[in-house]
Give the backbone structure.
Amino acid sequence: MDFRDSPEEAAFRARLRSWLAERAGTFPAAGDEYWARQGEWHQALYSAGFFGLSWPKEYGGHELPPVYDVILDEELALAGAPARPSLGYLVQGLGRHGSEELRRRFLPGMIDGTQRWCQGFSEPGAGSDLASLTTRATREGDQWVIHGHKIWTSYSDVADWCLLLARTDPDAPRHRGISAFIVSMHQPGIEQRPLRMINGVTREFGQVLFDGATVPADQLVGQPGEGWALAMTVVGHEREPSTLGFSARYGKLVRELTARAGERVPEELAWAEVQAEMLRLHVRRRLSEQLDGVVHGPDGSLDKLLMTWVEQSVGHAALAVGGTDDPELLGAYLYSRAQSVMGGTSQIQKNIIASRILGLGA
Amino acid sequence: MDVRLTSEQRQLRDAAAKLADDLGPGSVQELSDDDRVARLDKAVDGTGWRSLRADGASGVEVAIVAEEFARGLVDAAFGGPVLAGELTRHLGGDAAADTIAVAGHARDARGARRALALDGGRVLAHGLGAAVAGADLTRHTAEVTGAPEPLGTLQADAAGRWSALALVVTSADLVGVSRGAHALACDYAKVREQYGNAIGSYQAVAHLLAEGLALIEGSVSVLRHAAWAVDELGPAEAVRAARIAKLYCARAARTVCETAIQVHGGIGNTWECLAHVYLRRALASTDLFPVRLEDIHSGLS
């Protein structure tokens, strides 16, 4: 047992740290400016060999163990650099459910950042109950025609492609009538409507209206009716420890808040520090367990719940230290409220834990 | 970086779990079954785990046994003798039948003849007096008597590591208590029916238990690091890791035990339900070597 870096891990960390030092302050780490330049940041990370660390080499990854993603996240946070673009769940979804041809065609651009992606799952009437989605795809010759409304779609406005769930068989049982498509975002029949989040950010979230947009039949992922399986892979990986949304940033914010608080450390801040440290260590334990080939199914819901508690605890600490007069800290607090909703609400995570891990029949 | 338990450590965990399941109290009545306690004590003696540290075991192994024993509410002494052994290990001498004295009382004193206190760097041996009633129904507390006998002085590093180990042993106890109380509550939620269904099928109950499991998983992670740090980091870092673990595990344990009482409803508020035995042990382990939030940034003391 060793919590320290191996020699290889330490060498990687040192290389990354000096690369980041050379670029200190070059890229904005938060707010609309971050979202505006996220693509550039993604490509800079990729070109330097610091992105797609655990993904297959044939699609542009490095096939390193998942712990390297944690090192990357820790060093990004330490350097005050922007977060690693969160794509793992899309890579896993397409990697596991797409044909060899689709993987070869789309994964390299997704991983190297030259093609931007969004995820068209949620709808105004289908949030937690995703299987109730009503966006329709109708086969017309060698293409499908899409009608429907997607919402809470991250970076839809800059996306080149959308991994879209749509109903292809309205008569099938509702989980079996859903299919997944790779839809080009550059075509008529797609209308973007930005959403402004409660912290004022406008670039992160959008809604997308599909009114007659088309997708070639060979961009159906898997077979018709197999969309639900892909959706479960994607949301499962959204809760993976290595994609636990850049959890190292919590420790950094806690350190900044502690420096600002001076002598009088509010109790909420001290508790946030304990929680952030817990999460750092928890991610390490979970990643180590993956070395046994442990597949993270419902356990990801435990990780997501813990991460949510930590982020919201840090949010409360930001509020305790900065009050409402500091726009940046107020923004961090307000943004933390989304964590118990995005990627599956905390209530849904608890349902999964209760029924699939504890066997409570909930 | 690889923080998995080794196969030897997993075997130790399984052996400690089996002993606790076989001979720990399965009910409140069994707490007063002296024959069972004697058999349990003899079995623990036979394992040699009370002298784990003297035999070269790491903080991780000590934590493994402490956690499994607490999960099974093992009411034979373990943590006290282990920590006493850690003191005498540095001074030479025989630790058999020793426990520790903290805040003027001998702790985990069942079967002990002396209680060792660490005062500054000095190790003092006390005699044992009358039993003292406390919250914990599974571990004994006693008065100390007579003039303390000085046994020697620990170097600052060894004293720091001892503090870290003491926090780790009590944190491991808290994790075990959480797991035991949570399992008790889940079992009950699957069989107790109201409105025609098992109460665990209702989200209001299920979500409490789901939160409890997340708290336990977080506790396991933070404890693992602190237990490793006892031997692998410098004393100041080890103490800091142990304080973080203690704070997290103590809050988690109290919440999980309170949930166990709530899930048991009226029955949970009666003496005969084991839920309060877990809560009491959690409170005692929290109070033994207590850590306050403001202690995180203070140095070794």
Summary: The longest helix of chain A spans residues 267-290. Chain A touches chain B through 47 residues (CB under 8 Å).
